[in-house]
Amino acid sequence: MAQTKIAVIGGSGIYDIDGLETPQWVTVETPWGAPSDQILTGTLDGIEMAFLPRHGRGHVHSPTEVPYRANIDALKRLRVTDVISVSACGSFREHMAPGDFVVVDQFIDRTFAREKSFFGTGCVAHVNVAHPTCPRLGDACESAARTAGITVHRDGTYLAMEGPQFSTLAESTIYREQWGCDVIGMTNMPEAKLAREAELCYASVAMVTDYDSWHPDHGEVDVTAIIATLTGNAEKARALVKGLPALLGADRAPCPHGCDRALDHAILTAPEKRDPQVLAKLDAVAGRVL
Ligand SMILES: CSC[C@H]1O[C@H](OP(=O)(O)O)[C@H](O)[C@@H]1O
Ligand SMILES: Nc1ncnc2[nH]cnc12
Question: Which residues participate in phosphate binding (predicted)?
Fold first, then answer.
């Protein structure tokens, strides 16, 4: 049976995790360029862990410029099985208040200036992302959050915007009132789509920092207010992460939702038409089926 290896992608305000045994920052090279930073590896309760700061230590990459493909490829190359994305977000719902966590299950992708797939000319593939997050992993995140005393909401739709500017009031109103979105951020797409292409289970924990700009009783969103909430959220996120190994266990059975078999019927390009150079770049992501 495969061994569980849990990766945490830390968003704004989360540039490391604590409590790892034998912690080591390792450099991982990928055919898609360098990941956002070195990756912190180690074990927690006997389970292998990897931590990647999405924006790099010191917050050097903007949401548009995060090397999403290199990040997911690097985690796959490290034999990660489960990815937990932890991100700051704005809330469109009164009851999802700053300081609360939301285990997101759906996304609307409004990003437009990012590479969104590992596949293309030379090897075309279409994976199913109807349910882009793994419920088994979402269950673990919810449970770990509750144990850590965090107010957590299960399920919600995350609007992924390009940024880096926040939304206009008109945009915020449309996302909230017409599109039924619950939270907004700038980074979970294409990250979630790429994790599915790489056959990784993916869950997203969105940490509410603000009410974006729609709420009549709260000021418009700005980074100073976000950072004030982020510091407390980051501590809670670290507590949540510590609960994950015991919940997920060391032995990794096949994902009951099929995340780890997403490529079974996805590649359309005929074997004799596949470009060897493209296939070489896909060694980690799609090696299982190539
Ligand atoms: C801190 S303000 C906006 C910034 O925060 C979020 O980052 P992440 O998703 O990596 O936690 C948001 O998406 C923006 O990138
Ligand atoms: N209101 C907001 N919009 C987009 N990204 C965010 N990250 C934190 N708050 C946000």
Answer: 12, 54-55, 87-88, 187
Residue 252: closest CA among 262, 260, 243, 240: 260
Q: Does 260 appear as a known binding residue?
A: no
Q: Token digits for 233? A: 């959220």
Q: How far is CA 253 from the centre of its chain?
A: 21
Q: Is 1 annotated as contributing to ligand binding?
A: no
| Pocket flag, ligand 2, residue 234 (CB < 6 Å) | no
Per residue in 69-80, pLDDT (tens digit) is 999 999 999 999
Residue 257 pLDDT grade (very low, low, confident, very high; cuts 50, 70, 90) = very high
pLDDT in tens, 189-205: 999 999 999 999 999 99
State percent of the chain over pLDDT 90.
94
Domains of the chain: 2-113+129-260 (3.40.50.1580)
For residue 1, what pLDDT band results from cuts at 50, 70 and 90? confident
Give the integer Cα–Cα distance in Å for 215 and 85: 26
Find the 56 Cα to ligand 2 centroid distance in Å: 18
What CA–CA distance (Å, rounded) separates 242 from 20?
Answer: 9
